[in-house]
Amino acid sequence: MKKILIVYHSQSGNTAQLAQAVYQGASAAAEGEVQLSLLAAMEAGVSDLQAADAVIFGSPENFGYLSGGLKDFLDRTFYPLEPYKLNIPYGCFISAGNDGSGAVRQLERIAKGYPLRQVAEPVIVKGQVTASGLQECEELGATFAAALSMGIF
């Protein structure tokens, strides 16, 4: 069975709401074909990422950058997984107070090092979490689950 890891960091709760929406969208589309893991970045580790067939990252934009919590996860997993050249598909969602571009840029640079393949446009939710932002996150999760179950990636 294919596996999607949704790993996120949240302090205010906004990114956690978005992560839950990604999970709900993926769960609705998985139809028993895809196993889902929703983990806070501080709880996730090397074995979680190594077991994943795809990963969706969630982060607030902190001072124009990726959150320290998600960066910590990436730092902890990079060197142990470097020999494996994961090359799995990834996507991301950002809860942004600004425009989210700095966080996206930083994640894209880090992903090249693993390597991971970006297969979806980043979802950037600016300001407070809205119904449309939650819907975009549900669609991101559903897209990943459907694509994995159909063998698209």
From TrEMBL:
Keywords: Flavoprotein, FMN. Residues 4-153 form the Flavodoxin-like domain. InterPro entries: Flavodoxin/NO_synth (IPR008254), Flavodoxin_CS (IPR001226), Flavoprotein-like_sf (IPR029039), FMN_Rdtase-like_dom (IPR005025). Its cofactor is FMN. One of its GO terms (molecular function) is FMN binding. It comes from the Bacteria. This is NAD(P)H-dependent oxidoreductase. It comes from Dasania phycosphaerae.
